[in-house]
Amino acid sequence: MTRRPRRERRKDPRDGGVATGFGSVTDGVANLTVKEPGRFFALVLDTFRATFKWPFQWREFIQQAWFIVSVTVVPTALVAIPFGAILSLQIGGLIRQLGAQSFTGATAVVAIVREASPLVTALLIAGAAGSAMCADLGARKIREEIDAMEVLGINPLHRLVVPRMFACAFVGLFLNGLVSVVGIGGGYVFNVMLQGGTPGAYLASFNAAAQLPDLIQAEIKAFVFGITAALVAAYKGLGAKGGPKGVGDAVNQTVVITFMLLFLENFLISALYFQFVPQKGM
Amino acid sequence: MGVEIRVEGLTKAFGRQTIWADVSLTLPAGEISVLLGPSGTGKSVFLKTLVGLLKPESGHIWIGDRDLPRLSEHLLYETRKLFGVLFQDGALFGSMNLYDNIAFPLREHTKKSESEVRRIVMEKIDMVGLVGAEGKLPGEISGGMRKRAGLARALVLDPEIILFDEPDSGLDPVRTAYLNQLIVDLNAQIGATFLIVTHDINTARTVPDNIGLLFRRELIMFGPREMLLSSEEPVVRQFLNARRHGPIGMSEEKDVSELEAEAKLGHDPGQLPPIPPQLMPTDGGVRRSQSPPGSWLKAHGVQPPPGSFIDDLGRDWVQEWPRHVASRTPVAGAQPSMGGPGR
Ligand SMILES: Nc1ncnc2c1ncn2[C@@H]1O[C@H](COP(=O)(O)OP(=O)(O)O)[C@@H](O)[C@H]1O
Ligand SMILES: [Mg+2]
């Protein structure tokens, strides 16, 4: 209990003078190139460590998985049907001119399973699941729920982020499968019923070009996408500040950053796949 | 009972913006302290730093022999179990009802049976006066009830230190009075160390044993309630008495020219208002950490402003105190006399 009536010391740190303008630019650059990625990777590492903590939060996992499924399934199916149909339409027309209608099935498979389905999955994981997750975590952050949790001795990464990450990854797997099936189905309907292709040819060429690794690489992509989207959403959501507007900004940034990361990962995994897995000849 | 916290030379900044610098104070074990300051002076930041949610740039926070900013993650989580924190809006988990919210720490940290959990939770719900509302969701109840529920959750692990972030913000004066009374009663009951962060002067004048004032990025003064309420230091005096005259202006601080103009006009800051008697527990008891009215003033030879320590009933508590304490000393079976000084 000390009495310390101090004389005023004016040292306002915001009185930076001329240096402030330049300083804020360099600050901004350093922030974007070093600090943000640094903090993001710190969160990734912490989350990774929290993954191996016992017990796994099954309840949260199941609730979240169900939640993500509920916001993504319908849009996924709705996007996948026209995707398959359009591919059949575009490529089918071209292939018919070359007189190779019987390969329509093969093109559909290759296009849909290898490339289109991971993209559609990425779209929905980032746009629907990631944004919803970020909004949820951000709202909890600004309502101080996250702080309260930490003070109560519970690690929010373990309790909230890890189950969300796995939920997102597993729903990604499921969505990718769904897109493949619905897309190929859509292609089949379009090709066989509307363009007068034969079912036999469609299925035969399907077999000729498709191979299991195609599906596996797509599923690996979907899994990685899910993990990435959840981590970005967690990073942005848990870093939200400044009231409801802060949450809005965080959601916005989550969607943009996740899209960029997912397209990059898609490219990298595809490149690796073509390097290491031999393709079937047609 | 209760744990002492010693803060030494604590400084916190976000980037280039210093929030406060070189804050040193000791929260005495078992006492109620209030940290007062205008909005945006970093009171919430101070609370969060105390529980290790934010890392200070420099300085120490000693709890026993542990220096909080320098603990390993494991020890930090251990040490946090000493704390209960009431966040500004209760910070209840929005997806759980009040009962589950309050039971949450027990279910996470103890292996107690559900019936045991039920007993403890209902006891705390009763303590904060929320019986009957335990099935409600946080979104369905008023701000005052959310704060009470947040308080019940903070109490459930029997903390040694309780931190309150603006318990009186967003409440009407009547609810504020009830909540302040609840805080005093709780302190009498569990004897933990309390720190209340607020900008409400009435709370600061009547509730605590100690007051600190945070202003212009530093701790202006910290000490016993009577010391600050009788202080002539311009900032302290202006803030504790809610005056326009003084160094604090509309936009955080007045500039020098304004102050000079004021000095020329020769506004007399006037007499200090009387020091109100301290809020007492409802049952008329005496808190263990409470010191007799006027004792600090007497020990330091300071004359209190006229009319000090006189309650609504006109009793002078400097004289009333010895009688009151004598009447309270355990004569077996004696009925506690009702009613301390009113507000
Ligand atoms: N996480 C944060 N990052 C950056 N600035 C912050 C953060 N938290 C608080 N601040 C800033 O610290 C200052 C004090 O905030 P606060 O502690 O909430 O004030 P109050 O005394 O009203 O509780 C404000 O200017 C606020 O913008
Ligand atoms: Mg605050």
Quick one: CATH superfamily of the domain at 5-222 in chain B?
Answer: P-loop containing nucleotide triphosphate hydrolases
Please work out how many helical segments of chain A DSSP would assign: 8
Q: Ligands in the structure?
A: adenosine-5'-diphosphate, magnesium ion
Unreliable stretches of chain A (pLDDT < 50, length at least 5) are 1-19
What is the ordering of alpha helices and beta strands of chain A?
Answer: HHHHHHHH
- State the low-pLDDT regions of chain B, or none: 331-343
The Cα radius of gyration of chain A reads: 25 Å
- Strand percentage of chain B lies at 15-25%
Name the overall outline of chain B.
globular
Q: For this structure, what is the CATH class of the domain at 5-222 in chain B?
A: Alpha Beta
Q: How many beta-strand runs of chain A?
A: 0
Oligomeric composition of the shown chains: heterodimer
Approximate strand percentage of chain A: under 5%
**Biggest sheet of chain B, in brief?**
6 strands, mixed
Helix fraction of chain A by DSSP (H/I, runs of at least 4)? over 70%
Number of strands of chain B: 10
Tell me the number of structural domains of chain A: 1
Shape assignment of chain A: elongated
Biggest interface and residues each? A-B, 27 and 45 residues
Rg of chain B, rounded, reads: 21 Å
> What do the pLDDT scores of chain A average to?
82
Protein name (chain A): ABC transporter permease
Organism (chain A): Actinomadura alba
Pfam families (chain A): MlaE
Keywords (chain A): Membrane, Transmembrane, Transmembrane helix
